[in-house]
Design goal:
Length: about 140
């Protein structure tokens, strides 16, 4: 399959090609799509993980989406914390109303603290000072 080159003019691309569980580099049409997304220069919002990122090890396979923002669902994955900052972009997390008690009291307390101000929170990784610039109207470049 050929990837349609429509993203070059896009202001924002939503990446949801791959999720958790990948253990090898993307292939075929998915690899073509990731390569195209990275070439377009548009801002990218990755859903849960950038496509092509191992959710456990944080290895960014070749190819791997380079996200402007990653919106994690519920519990941060170890791969999101180990991945290169340039792959994850700004890391945000959304509470999904899964029960916290299944993770044990220490993790439960951390999740309650993380979401104390609402269902979406920015998670600032130490050493990752990624900031997506916005114009004077609050729109991202």
């Amino acid at each position: 399959g050929t990837v349609v080159q429509v993203g070059a003019a896009a202001a924002l691309i939503i990446d949801g090609l791959l999720g958790t569980g990948i253990t090898s580099p993307p292939r075929g049409a998915v690899a073509e799509a990731i390569t195209a997304i990275n070439s377009w220069g548009a801002k990218v919002l990755s859903c849960d993980l950038p496509s092509g990122l191992n959710h456990v090890s944080g290895e960014a396979y070749d190819p791997c989406v380079r996200a402007s923002w990653t919106l994690n669902y519920h519990v941060l994955k170890s791969g999101q914390l180990k991945a290169p900052c340039a792959v994850i972009g700004e890391l945000w997390t959304a509470e999904t109303q899964l029960t916290y008690d299944r993770f044990g009291p220490e993790v439960q307390a951390a999740l309650v603290e993380l979401y104390k101000d609402g269902p979406i929170a920015r998670f600032q990784r130490p050493g990752c000072e990624v900031k997506v610039e916005s114009d004077s109207h609050g729109h991202s470049d």
